[in-house]
Design goal:
Elements (H helix, E strand, L loop, with lengths): L5 H11 L5 H21 L9 H16 L3 H8 L4 H13 L20 H6 L5 H8 L5
Helix pairs in contact: 2-3
């Protein structure tokens, strides 16, 4: 059986689906590795398949580490505007032999992820703005 070369497969994916830039696929691979390490820590070092929701959380943490307050700017440059886009990238990779899935995995796992403002902007808001958001409006 022919082993799939990551770069070649990504070239084919990007040629067939122009919504996302090549770098989005490299980031997905790195974020999956990051997520598997997080999950492995919780499972006493045992590697296991990660769910869509676990991957979304790992993607969020990894993106904040890598890009900080520029995360959404980078994602927009790559064509990623919401969690559904992450799901499309994952399943493009699955369909091209770069990732594996279980019978339980589907694109819908990424539909109700997080709001990008909450996930990627809010962590960098000044404390005053966060406090103002938390206070109920006076009647």
């Amino acid at each position: 059986m022919h082993e799939v070369n990551f770069d070649e497969a990504v070239e084919l994916i990007v040629a067939a689906d122009t919504r996302y830039q090549r770098d989005a696929y490299g980031f997905m691979r790195e974020a999956l590795d990051f997520t598997q390490k997080l999950v492995g820590k919780e499972n006493q070092g045992k590697v296991r398949h990660v769910t869509g929701l676990e991957l979304l959380d790992g993607l969020r943490q990894y993106a904040l580490q890598q890009f900080g307050p520029m995360t959404t700017t980078v994602f927009e440059e790559w064509g990623v505007r919401n969690c559904r886009d992450f799901g499309e990238i994952v399943f493009n990779m699955v369909e091209n032999g770069l990732l594996a899935k279980t019978e339980k995995d589907s694109r819908e796992d990424f539909q109700d992820g997080y709001d990008f403002t909450e996930a990627f902007h809010k962590p960098f808001w000044p404390a005053r703005r966060l406090q103002a958001e938390a206070k109920p409006l006076a009647k």
